[in-house]
Amino acid sequence: MNWLDICALEEINALGSRIIKGPKGDIAIFRTSDDQVFALDDRCPHKGGPLSQGLIYGKRVACPLHNWQIDLESGEAQAPDTGCAHHHPARVASGRVQLALRDAG
């Protein structure tokens, strides 16, 4: 996998996010309270709300438009809602946030 260096981990607040431009639109990189990072397309599968502006709870983000709960690891909406935000591999290596881009579907 080809990893892209994005930023230092401390440049993303705990329970916060950062947006980067991807080849198919914005990608939100989320940091959990225990310093894990996850990356999803910055569009809720429901109505396209900006997930980067949602609140992070554990390993989920709540869409700011209609409070859909999106799993950060998979991008899957939590029941009873259905749909999926495209997930991108992300990691922290030597204190740096890295992202691997791959096409949807």
Automatic annotation (TrEMBL):
Key word Transport present: yes
Secretion signal span: none
GO MF term (any one): 2 iron, 2 sulfur cluster binding
This protein's UniProt keywords: 2Fe-2S, Aromatic hydrocarbons catabolism, Electron transport, Iron, Iron-sulfur, Metal-binding, Nitrate assimilation, Oxidoreductase, Transport
The Rieske domain, residue ranges: 4-99
Pfam families registered for this protein in UniProt: Rieske (PF00355)
Gene Ontology biological process terms from the UniProt entry: nitrate assimilation
Membrane-spanning ranges: none
Source species, domain of life: Bacteria
PANTHER family for this protein: 3-PHENYLPROPIONATE_CINNAMIC ACID DIOXYGENASE FERREDOXIN SUBUNIT, FERREDOXIN-RELATED
Family (UniProt): Belongs to the bacterial ring-hydroxylating dioxygenase ferredoxin component family.
Protein's recorded name: Nitrite reductase (NAD(P)H) small subunit
The organism of origin for this protein: Pseudomonas protegens
